[in-house]
Write a structure and sequence with these properties.
alpha+beta; Immunoglobulin-like; Zincin-like; Neutral Protease, domain 2; 7 domains; eight-stranded mixed beta sheet; 52 strands; elongated
């Protein structure tokens, strides 16, 4: 609430002979004021006596006062007030006496209900003088005030002591207010309606001046006043005065002055005022009312008191982040390029936008200061400001100086960025990537400032799947700052500034559709109702006063919807269907519902429905005070419900979600699936071979089952039975990875990047988990697919299972559909394809069965393509036929069909490390590898390699096969330099060796 009178905001710049700003308070000039009143005629009569120096010009603000006489040392001088001010050039030093009068009647216009700014008023209700009610100098002065009032009146003004005497006739009472400290102005409140309740706390006199009908509120206010004084004496310094009064006013004021606060009658009755605004006004006794504001250099006090009062109370309840977010939502809703100003330029609250800047952004600046300096340093700086600037005007410069001292660093950059420059930074997450690196996860991201870069320190939080999080402090100062980190567990999302510790523009996802966004729009379109127009007259007029434009529903074009927020009147308005779900059954007397504008996310849609014209009259003006809500309902003007739509917390990017699984009609998480499958002897996990996310699910299942029972094995389609020894040797640690890949002929026999399976194999090697090669030799399967089982030699037939089941007609039909869709061909070709597929399934089933019979104490995780597992037709039923072991089938990204699997997992895409490529097609013949072709944009071609070149070596290692090339590239990384030696044929000059260096992509 404003702490200065209207005159302090609107008066002309005055000059007055004053001591230097740092001089002791006692050196300030004395200003003696004697006043009396003609209440029936709304008149104040007064004489002001001001000490002056010869030839020192004095200018005073007089407002609408009538100057009756001016005298110097009891000699009348000629001077006059003009344009609300008066200038005097004294011929000699002495006392300047100014006799004046002023008439202050009600204007009949709501008594100035405009953001707490209320004019002077004298009538039968009482006296409220908070504006230009006496000739006021700009300079700080020590005031004494004597006010003669009718008997029965109680009066309040700035005072350390008050004396009360009755006139001899007994019809009047003289109140004398003494305040021995410099002030920039005084105020006077008086009425015959007060009951006064008093108390003390540590020698401080507490008083509550309440109207007799409201006196029951006085004790509650005094109790809370004691609590707030205790709080701020602990945080800051001793209370600066000997008195504090809570004064009820018949006007709708919300002021804080030295030694008292002035609250309107409607305000004091609100139950939340003692929990919020009262503390704010008491805190002003330190900031604004004993350390004064140098308004010419910016009003810092409203931001500071908002932070240490309203915000602090929410912080104590654990809701500080919500309060900070709301301040930023208000900024986003009300502030735009036209009304944006710096904190240095902020003087007072005049509208929603100025409040969002001076109070909201100002509070955020002090919050950032405290976070940067630490609580001890921050509060020490505030104490130093109080000590240095008590009863003087302070500016942002003083806070910069004292904060810099406490922090022991130069904070010029901070105050320049946040106080002198207007606006706030915009931030977003960019280039977000999640890569699996062995059994860890690498998160990469950039913090981007699309507009002017700020220097910021903000928290980034990685939230893990299955709970927990990791937070890191980031410092950014460029348009784009890149970060990366290695996590032990897979993260679900990354969030920036989720506790709203930075003053910044919010992202669209963080701003809910609230009434504030409508109020901040310059020209909303008022869409008139199709029925009962007379009911909504009050709504139309209220929003037209705020710039709204009327429009018939049928006349609203798409271009209108894209350019403006909309106020749609009536739940049956046809425009609702174009923009939102239908809104039916709004039974309250007056309802407001906010929605996002689907045509323009920067705008909102407001749907208002009312039952009667009276309901509109009772409620419509109140909605302007409910800016943070998305839905309101009123009954006869009384709010009966309010809510805000949830929005994103922080700048958030989803990285992974807990994979969702369908178990018939029950949706489960992967963790629950693992628990459900843990009792099975065999757990099959299907994949699309080239999807990292599927292999990550397989790894999670394996890890989860291993934690429950370490006696487990893994069967893998990717390895063929003749190479089992290579697997055994690698798992045991007797050979390294390079030898393993070469001995298993992985790159020759499986067409997918080994990085896809590396995390699984690495985990098995680390935990000594046996890995079973499930597949038959590739040559045999290819031969059957080409010519059928009958084409196999006797030696080859020894490799195939003795019993193979071809009776599953449903399986056959599914395979035939796949064959026709991808391959085409006649029945004979399909028959061979079907034979090869069954052979493939049966040999893997047999491999599983053989291992489990040799190792009856182990369970097994089968890792294969999903086609081998769907409906159990490929491997599972065939293995069950062999041994009767219970099993579970888990598929990734499968169609949800009955009996297709026990569980279906739907993981989100996941990036992974891949081996570099040369973007060339190689052929192998007689132990030589040649370049057959290049892919488009090939790095090899750009480096100078040509079709027909024979590859001799990579980094000095001889290349005898395409497998050698893949193996060499596997151990290279992005941006590595690869040395390539080739033999190039030349027609006349003979073959020649050439070397090239290629930077791998």
């Amino acid at each position: 609430m404003p702490i200065r009178s209207l005159i302090a905001i609107t008066m002309l710049i005055l000059s007055f002979t004053m001591p230097a700003e740092g001089q002791q308070a006692s050196a300030a000039p004395a200003y003696n004021l004697e006043v009396s009143f003609d209440i029936p005629n709304s008149k104040v009569m007064g004489v002001a006596k001001v000490p002056v120096q010869a030839k020192q010009e004095l200018r005073l603000a007089t407002g609408e006062l009538r100057i009756i006489q001016v005298s110097l040392n009891d000699k009348r001088i000629d001077t006059a007030a003009k344009d609300g001010s008066m200038t005097v050039l004294p011929s000699e030093s002495g006392i300047l006496a100014i006799a004046y009068e002023g008439v202050f009647k009600s204007t009949g216009a709501g008594d100035g209900r405009n953001y707490g700014v209320t004019p002077n008023l004298i009538d039968g209700r009482g006296i409220s003088l908070t504006g230009a009610w006496y000739p006021q100098p700009e300079a700080l002065s020590v005031y004494s005030l004597s006010a003669t009032l009718p008997h029965g009146y109680e009066a309040v003004s700035e005072a350390e002591s008050i004396s009360i005497t009755k006139t001899e006739a007994g019809t009047n009472t003289i109140f004398t207010f003494l305040f021995p400290h410099p002030l920039d102005g005084i105020h006077l409140i008086a009425t015959d309606r007060y009951d006064v309740l008093q108390d003390t706390v540590r020698g401080i006199e507490l008083s509550a001046y309440f109207f007799r009908e409201d006196k029951k509120l006085a004790e509650t206010y005094l109790q809370h006043a004691r609590k707030y004084i205790d709080l701020y004496e602990k945080l800051l310094t001793p209370y600066p005065y000997k008195r504090f009064s809570i004064v009820e006013n018949f006007l709708p004021t919300g002021y804080s002055m030295p030694t008292f606060t002035l609250l309107g009658q409607d305000v004091v009755k609100l139950p939340f005022i003692v929990e919020t605004s009262l503390g704010h006004e008491i805190l002003h006794q330190w900031f604004g009312n004993s350390v004064y504001i140098d308004f010419e250099k910016g009003n810092w006090a409203e931001g500071l008191t908002t932070y240490l009062a309203d915000h602090l109370y929410e912080e104590q309840k654990g809701r500080g982040w919500e309060y900070r977010k709301q301040m930023l939502v208000d900024y986003e809703s009300y502030v735009n390029e036209k009304n944006e100003l710096s904190l240095r330029a902020f003087r007072e609250r005049t509208d929603f936008a100025s409040k969002a800047i001076g109070y909201g952004k100002g509070a955020m600046v002090f919050h950032m200061l405290k976070n940067m300096m630490g609580e001890d340093g921050f509060y020490q700086a505030l104490k130093n400001v109080i000590a240095e600037k008590r009863f003087q005007r302070a500016s942002w410069d003083d806070f910069e100086r004292e904060c810099g001292k406490a922090a022991k660093k130069d904070l010029r950059w901070f105050f320049k960025q946040w106080v002198e420059e207007k606006g706030m930074p915009s931030l977003r997450l960019g280039d977000v990537d999640l890569l699996q690196s062995g059994d860890k996860y690498e998160v990469k991201f950039a913090v981007v400032q699309p507009s002017k870069p700020y220097i910021l320190s903000l928290l980034a939080t990685d939230a893990y799947l299955h709970g927990g999080s990791k937070t890191e402090l980031l410092t950014i100062d460029k348009e784009k700052d890149n970060f990366d980190g290695l996590l032990d567990r897979i993260p679900e999302k990354i969030s920036l500034d989720e506790n709203y510790d930075i003053a910044r523009r919010l992202t669209r996802e963080e701003v809910p559709p609230v009434i504030a966004r409508l109020l901040g729009d310059e020209k909303p379109i008022i869409v008139l109702p199709v029925n009962r127009r007379d009911v909504y007259t009050g709504v139309v007029e209220a929003f037209k006063q705020r710039g709204g434009v009327e429009r018939e529903a049928g006349d609203v074009k798409n271009s209108d919807v894209k350019s403006a927020s909309l106020i749609i009147l009536g739940q049956d308005n046809p425009l609702i269907g174009r923009l939102s779900d239908r809104v039916n059954d709004l039974f309250a007397g007056f309802s407001v519902i906010m929605r996002e504008n689907p045509w323009n996310p920067q705008k909102v849609v407001c749907i208002i429905h009312a039952k009667t014209r009276e309901e509109v009259v009772d409620a419509v003006r109140k909605i302007f005070h409910y800016g943070k809500y998305s839905a309101l309902t009123f009954d006869r003007g009384r709010n009966i419900s309010k809510k805000t739509v949830e929005s994103e917390r922080g700048i958030t990017m989803e990285l992974r979600e807990e994979p969702q699984v369908v178990d018939l009609s029950t949706l489960k998480t992967l963790k629950k699936v693992i628990e459900g499958a843990a009792g099975k002897k065999i757990v099959y996990v299907g994949e699309y071979h080239d999807r990292v996310s599927h292999h990550n699910v397989q790894l999670q299942v394996l890890q989860g089952l291993h934690r429950k029972d370490p006696k487990i094995a893994v069967g893998m389609e990717m390895f063929q039975r003749p190479f089992q020894k290579a697997l055994d040797d690698y798992i045991s640690g007797s050979i390294d990875e390079r030898e393993f890949l070469k001995s298993s002929e992985y790159f020759k026999r499986w067409g997918f990047d080994y990085n896809l399976y590396k995390p699984i194999i690495d985990f098995c090697r680390e935990q000594k988990i046996p890995v079973v090669a499930l597949n038959i030799s590739r040559e045999i399967v290819e031969k059957v697919a080409q010519k059928g089982l009958d084409s196999l030699s006797d030696e080859e037939k020894k490799e195939i299972p003795p019993n193979m089941d071809f009776s599953d007609d449903e399986y056959r039909e599914r395979l035939k559909e796949i064959f026709n869709r991808h391959r085409g061909g006649g029945e004979r070709s399909f028959d061979f394809f079907y034979q090869a597929q069954v052979l493939w399934d049966e040999i893997m089933s047999q491999s599983i069965d053989e291992f489990l019979k040799k190792n009856p104490d182990r369970r097994l995780v089968g890792i294969t393509g999903g086609g081998h597992l769907a409906y159990g037709s490929g491997i599972p039923k065939r293995t069950f036929r062999r041994n009767g072991y219970e099993y579970a089938v888990i598929l990734n990204d499968a169609d949800v069909e009955q009996d297709i699997a026990d569980y279906i997992v739907f993981p989100k895409p996941l990036g992974g490390v891949t081996a570099p490529k040369l973007n060339a097609l190689f052929t192998e013949e007689h132990g030589k590898v040649s370049i057959a072709n290049f892919s488009e944009g090939s790095i090899s071609k750009k480096a100078g390699l040509k079709i027909g070149d024979v590859l001799l070596s990579l980094d000095g290692t001889s290349m005898k096969s395409v497998e050698d090339v893949k193996l060499a590239l596997f151990f290279k990384k992005k941006n590595d330099i690869l040395r390539v030696k080739v033999m190039r044929k030349r027609f006349f000059l003979g073959d020649t060796e050439k070397e090239f260096e290629i930077k791998l992509p």
